[in-house]
Amino acid sequence: MAALKGDDPLRQVTVVVPRNTVGLATRRLLASGDLGPPPGQERLGVLNVRFSTLPQLVGQIAGATLSTSGRLPATAAVVHAAVRAALHADPGPLFGPVKDHPATVRTLANAYRDLRGLTPAATTSLAAQSERASEVVRLARAVGELLAGWYDDIDLITAAIAIVGDGPGSAGELAGPLAIYLPLRLSTLEEQFLKAMAGVVPVVLLVGTTGDDQADQPSRELVGRFSDSEFTPEPPREKVHATAVASCPSADVEVLWAVRGLMAHRDAGVAMERMAIAHAGVGPYPRQVLETLARAGIPFNGTGVRPLSSTIAGRALTGIFEIVDHDWRRDDVMAWMSSIPLVHDGREVRATEWDLVSRDAGVTTGLDNWREHLGSHAASRRADLDLLGDEDDDTEWRRNRYARAIERTESLAAFLEGLATRFDALPDSWAGWTTWSRAILKDYLGGPAVGDTGRRTNRRPSGRSTTFSNGSPRSTPSIGLPIWPPSDRFSTRSWMPPRPRRRGSVTGC
Q1: 52 pairs with which residues across the strands?
Q2: Of 360 and 32, which is predicted with more confidence?
Q3: Side-chain half-sphere CA neighbours of 492 within 13 A
Q4: How far is CA 69 from CA 62, 72, 73, 150, 206, in A?
Q5: Exposed (0-12), middle (13-18) or buried (19+): which is 394, by Cβ within 10 Å?
Q6: What is the pLDDT of residues 462-474, one digit of tens each?
Q7: How far apart are CA 411 and CA 415, in angstroms?
Q8: DSSP at 500
């Protein structure tokens, strides 16, 4: 930092980190004072230092230019729609039988992203390797043609390189000198961008080494591509091996043993950020590790175990399509109602009562079956109510019982009719699906609700109604991309982040 700032401690410097968590840890280390004051200064800390990942820096330089050109970002939903359009236009003999399978669309979307960084000559050479490679390349090119009016990370960094070359002043003022801290892996375009920035502002690479020749080979090659200076790795270190092996009777005990070992190292003076718990990522370990650390009050940071599709909003939307997929099967409808806090007519739905009503009515499968049996059940209860004689204690009890049964039956029937009407005219665009989904979340999960006590409660936590708006393009039909009704639940899940969000806190580390 001192070398890049020179004589001006207020000079802006950008530190490019591989991940935001690395930037957080580095920023805290600089602010802690453990490194001492900068050379030539007596006071601790540094000023006007920004931490950013490389994609974030590229977006700040070129994002506005691409947005003003009328192009929209090619999000995952857009790419999947383009892949489906290419498959249905000409699937070819290889992908024809599986063109509608969600895994086919997902795999080809990943292949399209992988091929975006290759030159035309490289993709042509790849297509000549086999029939399957040729078909993948052909479909990737077809998807690229459909997405000509959109931009992705490749377009963004290409535009950033051009901007730096055409107008270096603005890019230099925006970023300032760059410190590329611990680069893990840089693509060809990312290296071109950094070399272009090096012609405008000072760029310093801080490459991590281990002392192992094989492990340091990528770092050595990276430095060689950027500079003619000699690569000086760390001196060889003693290789670390496992120091203890434990045989535990269960996964719970295994996790507790690992956490106790972690705390023993903490008591010995090892900082929290210098320790990690690694596991295979399968079975009960992800959940048990996070829950054990949380119960013990140990600060941590790691990947969450619950994807967005498992949240209340996610279960609400995916559950609706599962109900339709299974032809309104009673067990599925009741399971969906019991899994989320639904609201109907300003009151929270009592799923247990509706479950008993549908069981007594003899509902099985099919929307028409629901209508017929619920109508017959309500009519039967009305007939029982009309047959009651003079009022006495027993008659009054029965009268109230039948009235409650009629009210619950009619309420359940009205709820299902309202839900069924949502599928009468399905949207034909991602913008329409976003509006449709927001209305579902607002009407069935959110908005002010009135409980049985008459007290109004806010049943709309922030974030529910915007869950599925992020990344949904506004004008997909304008380029002819088909929007399929997400009855197979794949399209709905494609709105959701595939990876769970990070969970935990590094406070106190």
Answers
A1: 16
A2: 360
A3: 22
A4: 11, 9, 12, 10, 36
A5: exposed
A6: 343 434 444 444 4
A7: 6
A8: P
Which tens digits make up the pLDDT trace of 235-266?
766 777 778 888 999 989 999 999 999 999 99
pLDDT digits (tens, 9 = 90+) for 388-411: 766 656 678 888 888 899 999 999
Amino acid (1-letter code) at residue 80: H
Average pLDDT value for residue range 68-90 = 87
How many residues does the structure list for the chain? 509
Q: Which pLDDT does position 391 carry in this prediction? A: 64
pTM above 0.85, yes or no: no
Annotation: CATH topology of 2-65+155-226: Rossmann fold (3.40.50)
Question: For 142, phi and psi rounded to 5 degrees?
Answer: -65, -40
DSSP bridge partners of 348? 343
Question: From CA 170, how far away is CA 167, in angstroms rounded?
Answer: 6
d(CA 176, CA 272): 33
Where exactly are the structural domains of the chain? 2-65+155-226, 75-146, 251-298, 310-494
Continuous H helices in 199-302:
213-226, 251-267, 285-295
* Class of residue 343 by CB neighbours under 10 A (exposed 0-12, middle 13-18, buried 19+): buried
Phi, psi of 45 (to 5 degrees): 90, 165
Report the C-alpha gap between 415 and 404 in whole angstroms: 16
d(C-alpha 235, C-alpha 31), whole Å? 29
Q: Pick the range with the lowest mean pLDDT from 280-294, 345-359, 446-460.
A: 446-460
- Cα separation, 474 vs 298, in Å, equals 43
